Amino acid sequence: MILERVKVGIIGPGNIGTDLMYKVMKSNYLEMKMMAGISESEGIKRAARLGFETSTESVNAVAKDKEIKIVFDATSARAHLKNAPILKEAGKLVIDLTPAAVGPYVVPCANLDSLSNSTTNFNMVTCGGQATVPIAYAINRVANSEYTEIVSCISSKSAGPGTRANIDEFTETTAKALETVGGADKGKAIIVLNPADPPLIMTNTIYSLVKNPDDKKIIESVNDIVKEIQKYVPGYRLRVPPVIEGNKVTVIVEVEGAGDFLPKYSGNLDIINQAAIEVAEKLAKDILVRSK
Description:
Helix 1 (about 15-25) crosses helix 10, helix 3 (about 60-65) packs parallel to helix 4 and helix 6 (about 125-145) packs parallel to helix 8. The protein has helices at about 15-25, 40-50, 60-65, 75-90, 110, 125-145, 160-165, 165-180, 215-230, 265-290, and strands spanning about 5-10, 30-35, 55, 70-75, 95, 120-125, 145-155, 185-195, 200-210, 235-245, 250-255. It has 2 domains: about 5-125 and about 270-290, 3-Layer(aba) Sandwich (Rossmann fold), CATH 3.40.50.720; about 125-265, Dihydrodipicolinate Reductase, domain 2. The strands form 2 sheets. The chain has a 6-stranded parallel β-sheet with strand order 3-2-1-4-5-6, with helices on both faces. By secondary structure, the chain is of the alpha/beta class.
């Protein structure tokens, strides 16, 4: 039985930050302490109604709160570049949900356990990265990928101002993560905003050209990684299992959200938040062990 939780703060009370708040409320290891933004937004008001501390002083309020050990930054890439040094100076562990990539890329099922213990800033890549990099990683580890391209298709209704403002960073950051975490020699990322109504859930297509094609190994590796992702993203599933044609591997996955705050079709926002919670809970467990 867990008697103590680690207090966290969230910067950015928009859709992602609000959904994170609801996920933190469900956690056995995390305790919501503060929601911070730059104005009395609906997200700030909602957090206050739920009984949490709020502030319009953004990063400065969270940095000054000594009880907060872990901070989620759900602002923008530009804002995080300013926030990161302030939070580092304050000694906070930071989970970056923007494409700023101040710290190393983190995809829990692929590289969380291999990161250095001195890491203090964890970049969650992008929503498309969390959905596709695991598949790229699974293919590469058994077949050695020379090129991986992904197409991430999300509902336009689940692409808020932050997502739209960061589209250039999305493609660049996701492509780099396909290489640095996914293992491909070269990566490319494309995002499509689908205007369909009713909205469709997030769908991702992964194409890899591999040097050592082996049907059995590739299929087993992909199935194994899907099971790993489903431990923290239950709505993640294969839509089209690996199709292997010579040295080309094609996989299609879809992501249905948990519906904590956002609609279930917003799997793009849900997966990056679920991954962020997975990272935060690991950090919290380490903190709790050290505090005994």
